[in-house]
């Protein structure tokens, strides 16, 4: 059985460490990346299908990263995470192709549930 992989992309080390802690006891293999361009390489190389992206990052924001992935991967389950939100941002997030949206501070239970739902969804799609 293939290990289920998940990636978190955020420019803050403390947030990435929090994700590592939250998922420490799960069966998922967790990847973290501060740089969205490096994240793209990791996602492609590792064939990661469940993703959480911060929206506000230097070089490339989470919305741009999501759009880039959606060019070649319509099946991945991609979540937006942000400390800021507005109605404009929410509509832009949906338009970019995100599947869900979370506000910081992160609720560990919600993030774990979102990951579980994403992997369940991918498994259902694989057996169609």
CATH superfamily: Response regulator
Distance between the termini: 18 Å
Structural class: alpha/beta
Uncertain spans = none
The major sheet is characterized as: 5 strands, parallel
Describe this structure in words.
The protein contains 5 helices and 5 strands, in the order E-H-E-H-E-H-E-H-E-H. The chain is of the alpha/beta class. It has a 5-stranded parallel beta sheet with strand order 2-1-3-4-5, with helices on both faces. The protein starts with a strand and ends with a helix.
What characteristics describe this protein?
5 strands, five-stranded parallel beta sheet, single chain, 128 residues, Rossmann fold, alpha/beta
Summarize this, please?
The chain has 128 residues and is α/β, with parallel strands linked by helices.
Topology:
Elements: E1 5-9, H1 13-22, E2 29-33, H2 36-46, E3 50-54, H3 62-70, E4 77-82, H4 87-96, E5 100-103, H5 108-126
Parallel strand pairs: 1-2, 1-3, 3-4, 4-5
